[in-house]
Design brief:
222 residues, mainly alpha
Length: 222
């Protein structure tokens, strides 16, 4: 049974490797739109830690002259993803976000945010994983922080973050490309994609299930 389980695991990782390679090729093929698409996915309901970071670094390392456009594309994609997340969070309200993220985590985050919602959004946009970017955006939106401020602060913070990453890619571009082409990196990313897919599926199910539960509850109260 162990051999069968190991073979099944290798098969899943192999499939994910092919999927990851195809996704990267597609996003690289569409040029400046690649970071935009990845940014939308990375900053919305899906769990793709470092997804857009790696995309920006890889593309800048291959095409250094495109730095301003890659940074702008990634920041815009992240802001669009945050916009979609904030819209749903406003509709769900505090109670809905509590059910999704967990009341303990939400209340803890709510105390920390307080009257510093703008600072919280900025830190979330600048900080790397595992900082809870999605929860911060959802919480500030549910607490009534103006949507335009969330988007503006997020855009500026992400712009700074991706600019720093792009400059690092300029300095260490050849080393980054060598690592990205190694077999160990590809297998590591495949395993990472499996985890992200599982986490994203779980996250999406929770986000989709909660509005339905709310709708059923409201009908029952009538």
């Amino acid at each position: 049974m162990r051999l069968a389980a190991a073979a099944k695991t290798r098969c899943i990782i192999s499939v994910c490797m092919r999927f990851f390679s195809a996704l990267v090729r597609f996003l690289s093929h569409i040029g400046y739109l690649g970071p935009l698409v990845m940014g939308i996915l990375d900053s919305s309901f899906l769990v793709l830690p470092f997804g857009n970071d790696l995309m920006v670094v890889g593309m800048v390392a291959r095409q250094p002259e495109g730095i301003p456009w890659y940074v702008l594309s990634a920041a815009c994609g992240s802001t669009i993803g945050a916009y979609l997340l904030a819209l749903v969070s406003k509709k769900l309200g505090e109670e809905g976000i509590c059910k999704i993220s967990g009341r303990r985590q939400y209340e803890k985050l709510k105390l920390r945010i307080g009257c510093r919602s703008g600072i919280a959004v900025a830190v979330a946009g600048l900080a790397p994983p595992p900082f809870p970017f999605t929860t911060v955006i959802a919480a500030t939106a549910a607490l009534g922080y103006p949507l335009w401020r969330i988007l503006t602060v997020n855009f500026l913070a992400r712009g700074v973050r991706f600019t720093i990453l792009a400059l690092l890619a300029l300095r260490f571009g050849s080393q980054i490309l060598a690592i990205a082409q190694s077999a160990s990196f590809k297998w590591s990313m495949a395993a990472f994609i499996v985890l992200c897919f599982a986490a994203s599926s779980y996250s999406a199910v929770r986000w989709l299930r909660n509005p339905r539960a709310g709708a059923m509850a409201s009908r029952g109260s009538e």
